[in-house]
Design brief:
With 286 residues, the protein is mainly α. The chain has two domains: 223 residues, 3 helical TM bundles of succinate and fumarate reductases; 48 residues. Helix content is 80%, strand content 0%. The protein contains twelve helices and no strands. It starts with a helix and ends with a helix. The N terminus is likely disordered. The chain binds protoporphyrin IX containing FE (HEM). Protoporphyrin IX containing FE binds next to helix 3, helix 5, helix 6 and helix 9.
């Protein structure tokens, strides 16, 4: 009788994390790849399209914003919540220590420390970056009093994509912050791909782990080039010309919307016979 009672008391007193460590660690690992890692790659590729000029970047941003009111739901379900989960568990893993450094060779040790250092940089960078571009929340009071120009929040306007991105990154100190942030996130992701292979037992032999070094290294180099090319893209953007293009495009879109609304209003005021006669006349003209 004594034995089971002692075990259950110990089990209850163990932290939630240690009781569910296996599952939590696997979910942490999985969220690092999808959706967080996959989203990071798509986001960096989209930003690199600033290199193609204001029209190309605006087209890509419009495609994302065509989700309309569903966009915040998609953002929270597939980006922010999984990222918050990954970050909270990541901080718990770092704080729980268990460094195990002596069982790694020298390079492995350095990578282990860099994985944790870049996790802290990614945490600080992403928190600031989302505030800087997006403002975190789109509530009116918040945008006026917190995410305002004085505090440097909410600088990106999706309707003026290239010009506002270029202005937001105009100051050299901001470019430097983005450089450090992007390189750290990409290192954390690429090195994380390698550690994921260990977590999930994909590369178990020394030879397979060596091959994986090449694959993850290549992913890291390609994504670093892609990520940093956005910085070149915004630096090359002519803000005045980009703004003129964006304003013209916006005006054309508004005129088209007004034309469609007026036409719909006119059609709804016609009788069924008038509408039929109009359709027949149109077909005859074709
Ligand atoms: C751009 C954002 C991020 C991406 C793409 C990302 C991706 C990854 C990936 C793929 C792994 C490998 C998982 C494994 O070893 O099984 C990983 C590990 C890790 N991540 Fe992240 N992560 C990001 C942000 C963060 C943040 C903000 C933190 C917390 C401060 C964090 C903390 C950690 C930690 C501590 C590990 C190592 C886990 C271990 O060695 O057991 N990550 N991450």
């Amino acid at each position: 009788m004594q034995g089971p009672r002692i075990i259950s008391v110990e089990a209850n007193s163990a932290s939630f994390f240690s009781r569910n460590e296996f599952l939590i660690r696997r979910l942490h690992s999985l969220t690092g790849l999808v959706p967080v890692g996959a989203y990071m790659c798509i986001h960096l590729i989209t930003n690199a399209s600033t290199l193609g000029g204001a029209p190309m970047f605006q087209k890509n941003v419009d495609l994302i914003h065509s989700l309309g009111p569903a966009l915040p739901i998609v953002e929270w379900s597939f980006i922010f919540l999984p990222l918050i989960f990954h970050a909270v568990v990541g901080v718990a893993i770092i704080r729980s220590g268990n460094p195990n450094l002596s069982s790694y060779h020298y390079v492995g040790n350095v990578r282990y420390v860099l994985q944790r250092a870049t996790a802290w940089i990614a945490l600080a960078f992403i928190a600031w970056h989302v505030f800087h571009m997006h403002g975190w929340f789109h509530n009116e009071w918040w945008l006026e009093n917190v995410a305002n120009e004085d505090l440097g929040g909410h600088r990106f306007d999706p309707k003026h994509a290239a010009s506002t991105a270029a202005l937001a990154l105009e100051a050299p100190i901001r470019k430097l912050a983005y450089f450090i942030g992007v390189v750290s996130c990409v290192f954390h992701f690429a090195n994380g791909l390698w550690t994921m292979g260990i977590t999930w037992g994909v590369w178990t032999t020394a030879a397979a782990q060596k091959r994986a070094n090449w694959i993850c290294g290549a992913v890291g180099i390609v994504m670093t080039v892609v990520g940093l090319s956005a910085l070149v893209g915004v630096a090359k953007t002519d803000v005045v010309a980009a703004q003129a293009y964006e304003d013209t495009k916006l005006q054309m879109k508004q005129e088209e919307e007004q034309r469609v609304a007026a036409e719909n209003k006119r059609l709804s005021s016609l009788t069924a016979e008038e509408r039929l006669a109009e359709r027949k006349a149109r077909e005859a003209n074709h």
